[in-house]
């Protein structure tokens, strides 16, 4: 009888590329082992279709339910404790069949930039397959300006004052954007907070093109999905023009 195997169902952003890179490093490490050492063999599915076919061989629908189901009563108060919550559980089989989930994120174009560059920015967003589902220009209050700053800036009084002074110096434009994997895609387009670092990494990054300093770096983008939900509620309390966005919850 052969030795047992470990079968894992993994989930993550850009999962096939990330896992492939990890296994490649594992294989390269095998070459550096001494003859008496060994590493386990590893195989991975290469496409969503193969993943689905292999997953149903080893797992049941009940096995592949996300942890969110355990907390569904927090998000769906109409579901009473003890009531069958499985109808609202999120099965990974369903995700495999449905494909990439369309998400929302928030882009804030800082004062002084959007009035000069908006047509080009909107064109580039269109080329990157973003849909604009919310847009408004507003004069930020100090509290709202502080809320979108990184924690490191918030803990530095001088930096906090400089950022808030700039963000409240004029009218900003806030966009709610929608596309699959919207949060990460937008962050990838913006690049690092420091425009000089962005310029070094890739001159095509938006902060490399439009930013002049870590304070006047052109843009704010939601750093995570949870922060995107918070930002939508902060800047669009009246709602959005897309019904799908209205249902998003952390």
Automatic annotation (TrEMBL):
GO terms for molecular function: kinase activity. Pfam families: NDK (PF00334). Residues 102-242 form the Nucleoside diphosphate kinase-like domain. PROSITE patterns: NDPK_LIKE (PS51374). Keywords: Kinase, Transferase. Coiled coil: none annotated. InterPro entries: NDK-like_dom, NDK-like_dom_sf, TXND_domain-containing. Belongs to the NDK family. This is NDK5 kinase. It comes from Grantiella picta.
